[in-house]
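Q: Structure for this?
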Amino acid sequence: MKYFDTLTQGALEALVNRGVDPDSLLYCLKCDMNGEGLYYDTYLTFDSKNLYIVSGYDRLVSDKKKFHTVFDFKEYNEYSMEQLKELYVDRYRHTCRLMGKMKAEDGASKEREVQIKTDDTALESINREENRPEGEKVWLSRFSAGFSEKAEQFSRRYNMTVKGEEIDDTPLAENSPFCPKCGQKYPDPNRKFCPYCVKKSSIIKRLFGLFGEYKLQSAAIVFMMVLSAALAVVSPYFSTTFLYDKVLDSAGEFYGQILFAIIMVAGFKVLSELLQCAYGVVFTKAVTKVMHSLRVKVYNAMQHLSLPFFTSKQTGSLMTRVDGDAEEVSEFFCNIVPGGVVNIVKLVSMSILMFIMAPMLAACVLGMIVIIAFSEMWFIKGQRRLWRGINLSMRKMRSNLNDSVNGHRVVKAFAREEQEKDRFGKSLGKVYDADIACRARGANFEFGQDAIFIVGGAIMTVFGYYLVVTEKIGLGELMLMTGYLSMMIEPMYFMIWAGDDLSRCLDAASRVFEIMDSKPTVKPPENPAKVGAEGLKGDIVLKNVSFEYEAGVAVLKDLSMNIKAGQFYGIVGKTGAGKSTLINLISRLYDTTNGTISIDGISVRDIAFEDLRRSIGIVSQETYIFMGTVADNIRYARPEATLDEVIEAAKSANAHDFILKLPDGYDTVIGSGGADLSGGERQRLSIARALIQKPNILILDEATASMDTRTERKIQNAIDNLKKGRTVIAIAHRLSTLRDADMLCVIENGEVKETGTHDELIHKKGKYFELYKLQAEALKTISMD
Amino acid sequence: MNNYKIDDFSIDTLRIIDVNKLKLERKDSGYLFAEYEGKSYEEVSLTRLQPFYCLDAYISVSFRNNEEEWIEIGVIRDLKEMSGEQRQLCEDYLNFRYYIPVITKIHSIRDNRMGYLFVDADTTAGRKKIAINDWWTNFRINNSGILTVTDSDGNKYQIPDLNKLDGKSNKKLELFV
């Protein structure tokens, strides 16, 4: 039993005690709630004959520093598959119920054995005489909405077992919601990322791995960083202790050698600056290269992922990953690593030097640093709340601004300018309040911290002078100590903030690596079938095809279809019937959940993506225009197409005329930031884009929906011309679009309801006839008006 | 059964249900059965039209037809208009349908910054460790001050009034709302 949940030891024992063979169990589902809405652990499992339900409470107990789960048994139920014929999920707003449909009886009473155990020792068997009407529904368990997908899959497998159908668990193995390392469930089932297993250190290691190609530069960078930090610490020594105690003091070793002192001070300073400059140049080059290659890797990885990856994530979030997250990761190299190395070297070396020179004063300086560090941490803790407040109010203000600017037509049409002013004013007011609160606290704290610094510095200086007077240290040493106190503040602040910055970087890095590690769900064939240069002809056979975007919600159900090469095949049906899904499956943007699709006798799973896509041209309802010229957009799928071919395709798609009217003809820049095109114009360009590809199979998914009747008619004629030697699959709401179809198919709720020619379907007086009548009546209404 | 036509061209209007003519019955399976204006409906559902602002008023009554579509019978303007027993039945059904665990106390919020926030909280359903991905999107506070939290599994939790939450819990939440 690999799926979906695992029975805890106690729950398993409860089943074994009732004679259930644990090895015969097929699947297990854990539900989390009882009828009163309290958390309650219910395990449902089944073998080839019965469904078993055992309920109670899972408790986590510690035993000699180890945690294990104890199951407090409460209730047991058992249903025979002979009686319980079907399981299904009944969804509510935030919870769901697992329901069962009993076997339909001919009005006769039947007996069901329910075994209920109310305590750990006694087992009761109650035989209940019940009159169950046909297909009565029974409530089996309740669970939070998050369990619904799993419950749907469990129910589906139960129903297939009842029917004796074969179950293919391969998709489950590929999309396991559990971390293979620790066995814990991923917090987000759509994000195969386990925060329990992924250690920060492993991400840091991987980040450093990006520098693998630049080992020599990396070594040079680290060497220069450490040396530069060491010089920064040593150089004040020459302007203080060395100058005052060794050069200016008559008892000093270098008494009177002022020029030497100046050379030393200046030399160290210049050397330190030169090193910093050199490491800056090498470092910037290496980081820029690393970041460039990271962005390329993320983008390339995204291009290889399947369509479901893009549809399951918001475009904004994906763009953030390529751009924002990569930027955030660059902080790691540009700020955290160099800053960390330099500041750690500075702090450690300064502390050591201070303790060697004057341990008492060093302790005093470090004590003050610790006080300042704690006060800063206290300040940050409180300030974070205020910063988040600003952040939240800013986001809300931006949302409001975005809303009213984008909706300005509606605002003006309804004359709601005053209302919008008021709304924006309120959100701006919140930003102001949050900002003031934050700044006021910051200013107060700065005052307090300055006071600590002044008082602490004064105490330290007095103590230092005392040490000078008592000749425990020299004046230069005291000045060096005072200098180090100021020099330690910055590294200390850095170290306090580094934790936050590092966490943010690692968070971004984990998301970036997640994309790089993602595997396409629609995999290219390992041994693709051979397809000739002429491409696929277009004999398309769909056999018992089922498909679900969301587990348990079937969009296509056991659908079979036979499209012959060269046929004009029309598909009609209501919105949401599954028509576009069918196209996605034929062109293998998704893989079927069940069943097979073959073209020219070859399964689409065995056809190389290149062969499949060059043979199929799709014009969808939603057209996308890329940034670039009109000509570039038309030749998108075949960049080598000549201008003759581009114009020919545009003419066929009835786009030539409107392109002529554009300011720069075929060179007019369109798309984001370019000339604006209407919906119909975009669709015509999209048709031209598909035609230039010269595909053997042309799929038109509501391709003429945004066009006026006259243009549609023209395009119909163009398509009629193109039909020769091509397989055309057209989806349309308007039946007139499909008037010349060789074969028509009506899809409803993901099932094929009817197939036949127009005449056949009209005579059949079924669903197609209903649609035909409806559209004819609608036209009649217009003519009557 | 129903006589409404799906492809009816007539203009749909707000149909207020005469509660005196409506008879609801709850079956063992939990589904509602209804009789209204001489017609009977096997599987009926009640929906709050404004689930945040109006809990007992503007309740839509719909039934599932043979094509598995939900068709509205009408709208109950106010549950107070109903008889005691019928009103209780509706309230019980709605409370069940809209049940959402309410967070009563927050023990800790751990922001491990690997994209997740872990909230250890007491809820009306029991104690729970809630994993939240992208808290900005999943902590939603509406104009009435109701905070809805969505965890990474899609489960929802609610805090109807932040001011009624104890001080310590409120302080822990402050960073996120």
